[in-house]
Specification:
This protein is of the alpha+beta class. It has 2 helices and 6 strands.
């Protein structure tokens, strides 16, 4: 999946409107599914999605020990990152309900 796209932009340079192509960062929406439970949809750059998912889970205190991380699977066509954690049922439910 492309992480940078070439696109037509309009700039004002020295008081004149100029059309040119430039590179912009691509973003996509991916669903984060933990232990078969849809957790959240994230708009992000479609690179290093496995690291993004694990970092998100640490930040949200759903994952507190790397030893509990069993599997991370990126499914680009489905736009999903599926994570399997050991013993995270309560923290997943708290996160789904907006509580930490």
């Amino acid at each position: 999946m492309d992480t940078v796209l070439e696109t037509l932009i309009i700039r004002v340079e020295r008081g004149e409107v100029v059309e040119k192509t430039d590179l912009v960062v691509a973003e996509s929406i991916f669903s984060l599914v933990v232990n078969d439970t849809p957790l959240v949809a994230l708009q992000c750059s479609p690179s290093a999605l496995d690291a993004m998912a694990v970092g998100f889970l640490f930040t949200e205190k759903i994952l507190s020990d790397a030893a509990d991380l069993e599997q991370v699977e990126v499914l680009e066509e489905e736009r999903q990152v599926r994570v399997t954690l050991r013993g995270a049922g309560d923290s997943i439910e708290r996160a789904r309900n907006g509580r930490r």
